[in-house]
Amino acid sequence: MSAMIKVENLTHIYSKDTPFEKAAIKDVNLEIEEGEFVGVIGHTGSGKSTLIQHLNGLLKPDSGKIYIDGQDIWENKKNIRQVRFNVGLVFQYPEYQLFEETVAKDIAFGPTNMGLSQDEINERVEQAIEFVGLSRDLLQKSPFELSGGQKRRVAIAGVIAMRPKVLILDEPTAGLDPKGRDRILSQIKDYHKRTGSTILLVSHSMEDIAKFANKALVMNESKLFAYDTVENIFKQSDSISKMGLSVPQITKVFDKLSEKGYFTNENIYTVKYATDLLLKHLKKEEQ
Amino acid sequence: MTEQIVTKNLKFEYEQEDEQKVLVIKDMNIKINKGEFVAILGHNGSGKSTLAKHFNAILLPTQGAVFVDGIDTCTPNQLFNIRKKVGMVFQNPDNQIVATIVEEDVAFALENLGVEPKEIRKRVKEALESVEMYQFKDHAPHQLSGGQKQRVAIAGILAMRPECIVLDEPTAMLDPRGRKEVLDTIIDLNARYSTTVALITHYMDEAAKADRIIVVDHGEVIMEGKPSEVFSHVEKLKEIGLDVPQVTELCYNLRKEGIDIPDDIITEEECIQALEKLLQNA
Amino acid sequence: MLRDITLGQYFIGNSVIHRIDPRMKILLTIAFITMLFIVKNFIGFAVAIVFVFAVIFLSKIPLKLVVKGVKPIVPLIIFTSLLNMFFISGKTLFEIGFLKITVEGLNLAIFMSVRIILLIMGTSMLTYTTSPIALTDAIERLLNPLKKIKFPAHEMAMMMTIALRFIPTLIEETDKIMSAQKARGADLESGNLIQRAKALIPILIPLFVSAFMRAGELAMAMECRCYQGGQGRTRMRELHYSKLDVYSAIIMAISIVLIVLINIFVPTII
After folding, report:
1. Residues of C in contact with A163 (CB under 8 A)
2. What is the tens place of the pLDDT at every residue in C217-242?
3. Which residue of C has its CA nearest to A54?
4. Chain A contact set for C213 (CB, 8 A)
5. Which domain holds residue C20?
6. Could you tell me the fold of the domain covering A5-247?
7. How do residues B61-88 score in pLDDT, each as one tens digit?
8. CATH architecture of the domain with range B3-226
9. pTM for the whole thing?
């Protein structure tokens, strides 16, 4: 089986041929299989935003190749819009891209650009709004009347409605309260389960990545530091902390405990797993 | 202890375009003491931002009253005095920086208040130094990172030498590095200059650093106390859409299963200690 | 990309020209423009040319850069030159078909071109050597006397400052919105004029919505910092005229007198 996303020797340079020339990403090689839920980690300026904007052809590589579903996306320049329908990208604070009179029209913007029939568009709009957990009653409202969290979800629906094979979300929970964060992430997880599409989730919250993703991709200083299972990534909590990123609080606690000789072979990054492990250990001792 | 901010039966409602009245704050009685670091928690739409805007007379109560250092915020000729005493920092650093040069921006409030140029220079330097941004005084705001911009915004308030600084989700738009910079600055101000701090936040780890937490829901105060007390009500917090630090949740889970572990754990160190003790005894 | 545009055109430095008080620089620029329009012959221009190049030399700004600033108006210069060359009547120099080039026309074409080029080079020295904030500051202070006739000098300067402050922010925002709409398949590059104009709607509406929101938040932040208009306001940056300003004014005055004298003793071209 060929990979859904394949990146070969990708390099991108900002402000080329000026004194401000700077490599945003350097020689990245990466293969992501279909159906993965990948957490993308890296601090501001690590190159992660540049990387994801290459995957749907918003940025053009200075060198290297990108394949989506086996197809070189820059092979035919005219087809680049098709690539954007296949790789849906939800930007940070996507509510700022809403512009239509009604929620329905805004969600339909992508599908309309795809040139679909009106029936197909309507069906997709209704399905997309359901995916993000909003009532159909909102469809005829103006997007500007909605609450912040609702706007965000409408914007996500606008990308989902294109039914992309790959869905990339750049910090979809930024600025939301805990409930809003949880709701959006659960809906994305649910969408992943139901459609089996490949998901890339950019997040600063290691807790969220630990909870929702199965793979993690770490960018550091314009290079791919690692692409591996979440478990293996959090095993390297030392190097991750050195990059200025943080591992989940719970992982920090168990790192300290393992220094003291407890659970040295365990790799803990969710509260649930930690609870189970401690209970097993403590209850066993009791008996 | 002297009181910095007091609200007495504060009620606030506004009228929508369709003349329907929206009640945002029902009946709030809170007190913030001088030199205290208070975190205000609540989900979006709980009324916490509206509450904060009453602290420096950006909003005035529909009913009840708000006192700043004993002055009723409705007293018209005290407006600037109140705003000098209670400074406010907002979520988006981009939308609160007025000037094209850092130094000029920090001077803005003092220029408005008609302070002598010499004194302005002195206070601008002081304010920028206290947020560790003095070396950036000649930069343009758009050349700075989010955390740096937010620190400039804080300096712009500090230049007025306020007694109290109210921060409305100052870290919501920042990356982890920026969040840490800003939080460290806030804690430092509180510790070094005894500036009263009211921090509105969604991040539980930030609230855990406060002296006291006030939890707001549907325009009412529903919980109040030390972080360890407030976070011990895990169920209740989750019910109203808030969270607790991971270590608190872990201990809560264990306690629910009958394990004997204290219910006031909110930091990593406390958690490590408690777990170590348990494991040693086991 | 949009964010690569450099705005403000200010080049940091500490040359003599940089150090002239911004108010004086604005006044000198106005005097310079007047000087260019007094000039009536090429010998007069020689004085103006020496003047401009001396300023460029003293400012330590690379000549290449100043020349580059003239580039955008080259089409305009060519267009007016052609008009002058062909449509001024006088002694015929040579003919191509029905087109006649006259000596007077050619003279005038060169004369006007030199004037426009000097105008651009000279006035751009003001923005090259003065920071935007110093400029707005100076404009406010120069216009201050007009407050007596209710001219909103402070408000105008404040508006200019805020505009300058938000230009980079809004450029970045436009960039982001464009990317977001392109990610939803918006086609911004092809189609006829009407289609292209229509394609701008998904960019302009979000941009306006966000600009209004920003304006609201900024107003509140300004209120929190006790803003109440220009009344009773002081400034951190104090401006003082120095000897340098007196010297520069004297040099300008001498140049103008020189040109007037040349006008009297040398025949005029126009």
Report:
1. none
2. 999 999 999 999 888 889 998 888 99
3. C183
4. none
5. 2-168+240-265
6. Rossmann fold (3.40.50)
7. 999 999 999 999 999 899 999 999 999 9
8. 3-Layer(aba) Sandwich (3.40)
9. 0.88
